């Protein structure tokens, strides 16, 4: 089994008021020196079977058509091996 | 014979009943449509109402856009059936790529609810023919994700083709409903597709159709009389 991680971020030119609100809160919490914050979404897909090129291509398609709205968002797809956990 | 206008109910739709009522007040026959049902019951036009379909999970309209009813709505809209998306319905139409651009959270991060002043920019669509171009109207606005965005190229194209259907009136008193309420680019409140059969806007015309309730204005009624006339004269 493998985990595929899809990260979705607003495109750089799109205003992110949520990220700005987080950034503005930082000095109040004693965090200095952070000039910008952008907030995004992370999807962790647990995939049955091998994550081969065909499976990755399908996940890419899923990300492009559903998980991200490419009018406003960019996305990345990466595979993360999951350590076997004793059951 | 009058026109039959369908109103889709998604899980989380709020204004489907109000929309049906507005259609009835205009003199057409409202037909309830269900999100799981591909069948449009032979309606002549469809309204996607406001609300929070599928809880706005992922993005507003993102999950509704893949519902069975939308398969048929998308197909029929492309072949000319009139479709109006109000608020959440507008979000569904952009997610479905029936209208360009996308909707994002209000720039001030607050839910907004007020009587908003709009200018009718395009009175040539299936849903706006009973207005006059340049007419200023007050329509209730209530949303979280009302910020219209699109890239510069798309915005220029919309302007050049007269496809900005409604704009927020920004000059004037805030108490009179003026101002850009959500950071929408170029003060865009609503747009139309190239053919003029698909229109989406954030404010809620169905909440301004009778003098007794709400603001007491009936500035939203022409949406529904416009489409009725178009369908009956067709």
Automatic annotation (TrEMBL), chain A:
Gene3D superfamilies named in the record: Phosphoribosylformylglycinamidine synthase subunit PurS
Catalytic activity line of the entry: N(2)-formyl-N(1)-(5-phospho-beta-D-ribosyl)glycinamide + L-glutamine + ATP + H2O = 2-formamido-N(1)-(5-O-phospho-beta-D-ribosyl)acetamidine + L-glutamate + ADP + phosphate + H(+)
Localization per record: Cytoplasm
Pathway: Purine metabolism; IMP biosynthesis via de novo pathway; 5-amino-1-(5-phospho-D-ribosyl)imidazole from N(2)-formyl-N(1)-(5-phospho-D-ribosyl)glycinamide: step 1/2
Listed EC numbers: 6.3.5.3
Domain of life: Bacteria
A GO molecular-function descriptor: phosphoribosylformylglycinamidine synthase activity
CC annotations in GO: cytoplasm
GO biological process, one term: 'de novo' IMP biosynthetic process
Subunit structure, as described in the record: Part of the FGAM synthase complex composed of 1 PurL, 1 PurQ and 2 PurS subunits.
Physiological role: Part of the phosphoribosylformylglycinamidine synthase complex involved in the purines biosynthetic pathway. Catalyzes the ATP-dependent conversion of formylglycinamide ribonucleotide (FGAR) and glutamine to yield formylglycinamidine ribonucleotide (FGAM) and glutamate. The FGAM synthase complex is composed of three subunits. PurQ produces an ammonia molecule by converting glutamine to glutamate. PurL transfers the ammonia molecule to FGAR to form FGAM in an ATP-dependent manner.
NCBIfam families, alphabetized: phosphoribosylformylglycinamidine synthase subunit PurS, PRK05974.1
Stated family: Belongs to the PurS family.
Protein name (record): Phosphoribosylformylglycinamidine synthase subunit PurS
Organism (species): Streptomyces caniscabiei
